[in-house]
Amino acid sequence: MFKKIAADALGLSDIGTIISPGDFDKTDADDYVLHEDGEKIYFLIKTKADEYCFTNLALIHVDGENAISSKRTLKRYPYSQHKISNVILETAGKIDLDVEIKFNISTIAFDIDVKKEQIEQLKDLYKALMRISEIAAENEKYIGMASQGLDKAVSVLQNSRIHDEKLAETYGELTDFGFSWLKATHEQYHIKDFGDVFEKYINN
């Protein structure tokens, strides 16, 4: 019991190791990467129980019940469906042997401990996740602005004095245009692949 308390106090309970690219294929997470669709691993942290695999398309979490169990649960979080937010990097104190990176993906909170000597590599992941978070927040605003702009255009048309028959025809054309415009806006600002961000910040 005292060993466990000491381990928790020092951050030794489940400290992760950043895996080098040459060893990605030796991990469980690599088996679940969609290589056939151009998915690529950029960063991978392995603890005694879990693996956290950051690809250009998603976070793949190989979730182990505990360090001694062979049972694993695969959880996949595509960035296009799960927004990253609240990215925090905590550096080590004098007695700590680990550093921490924390973030939310949708409503799920992650808190990953990593060996203190790998802080420089973890900083790269921090920068990449921060930038992805910023891009997602910016794009969400643009999509909202586009939707509001279309709503205003429809409102103006409905309040116009165009003859009823002409109004119906024009409204139909506007509906078709609006759908195409919003679809194009969504495709432009709803990013699925963040490979360029990882390429910029991750120094493998």
Taking the sheet with the most strands, its summary is: 5 strands, antiparallel
Strand order within the widest beta sheet: 1-2-3-4-5
CATH homologous superfamily annotation: Bacterial Pleckstrin homology domain
| Silhouette | elongated
Query: What is the tally of beta strands?
Result: 8
CATH fold title: PH-domain like
* Straight-line N-to-C gap: 40 Å
Number of domains: 1
Low-confidence runs: 1-12
Which architecture would the CATH scheme give at its second level?
Roll
Helix content: 40-55%
Q: Strand-residue fraction?
A: 15-25%
Order of helices and strands: HEEEEEEEEHHH
Per DSSP, the total helix count is 4
Radius of gyration: 23 Å
CATH C-level name: Mainly Beta
Helix/strand layout:
Blueprint lengths: L1 H9 L6 E2 L22 E6 L4 E5 L2 E7 L7 E7 L5 E7 L7 E8 L2 E8 L3 H40 L5 H26 L5 H7 L3
Antiparallel strand pairs: 1-2, 2-3, 3-4, 4-5, 6-7, 7-8
Organism: Chengkuizengella axinellae
Pfam families: bPH_1 (PF08000), YvbH_ext (PF11724)
InterPro entries: PHb, PHb_sf, YvbH_oligomer_dom
Structure, explained:
The protein has 204 residues and is of the alpha+beta class. The chain has one domain: Bacterial Pleckstrin homology domain (PH-domain like), CATH 2.30.29.50. It has 4 helices and 8 strands; from the N terminus they run αββββββββααα. A 5-stranded antiparallel sheet has the order 1-2-3-4-5. It has a 3-stranded antiparallel sheet with strand order 6-7-8, with helices on one face. Helix 2 runs antiparallel to helix 4. It is elongated and about 75 Å long. The N terminus is likely disordered. InterPro entries: PHb (IPR012544), PHb_sf (IPR037063), YvbH_oligomer_dom (IPR021722). It comes from Chengkuizengella axinellae. This is PH domain-containing protein.
